[in-house]
């Protein structure tokens, strides 16, 4: 099974945008909310035996309100 490049560990890593004070000031408390939701989604994907990427794609494909899905894959193997 392919895994997402991004792993949510609960702590802000220095290598991500939200570690930058600019983004932290811009988004404030919203980051903590989004981070906690990403942890919940990671648990759900683990329970289902899939990656966050696969869970996201499945949600998009099954949601009738989604008209088009744009992915940032540079190679077919990324899909």
Structure description:
This is Voltage-gated potassium channel subunit beta-2. Keywords: Ion channel, Ion transport, Transport. It is a single chain. By secondary structure, the protein is an all-alpha fold. It has one domain. The protein contains 3 helices and no strands. The radius of gyration is 15 Å and the shape is extended. The protein starts with 20 loop residues before the first helix and ends in a 17-residue tail after the last helix. The relative contact order is 0.13.
Task: Give a quick summary of the entry.
This protein is mainly alpha-helical. The chain is built from 3 helices and no strands.
Throw out a few tags for this protein.
single chain, 79 residues, mainly alpha, disordered N terminus
Secondary-structure element string: HHH
Average pLDDT figure: 77
Radius of gyration: 15 Å
Number of helices: 3
Distance between the termini: 12 Å
Bin the strand percentage.
under 5%
For the sheet with most strands, the description reads: none
Which structural category fits the helices and strands? Answer: mainly alpha
* Uncertain residue ranges: 1-6
Outline:
extended
How many structural domains in the coordinates?
1
* Helix share bin: 40-55%
- Give the total of beta strands: 0
SSE arrangement:
Elements: H1 21-27, H2 30-48, H3 52-62
């Amino acid at each position: 099974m392919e895994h997402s490049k991004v792993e949510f560990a609960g702590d802000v890593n220095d290598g991500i945008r939200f570690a930058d004070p600019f983004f932290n000031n811009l988004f404030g408390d919203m980051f903590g909310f989004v981070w906690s939701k990403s942890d919940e989604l990671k648990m759900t994907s683990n329970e289902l035996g899939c990656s966050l990427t696969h869970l996201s794609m499945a949600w998009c494909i099954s949601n009738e309100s989604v008209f088009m899905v744009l992915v940032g894959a540079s190679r077919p193997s990324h899909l």
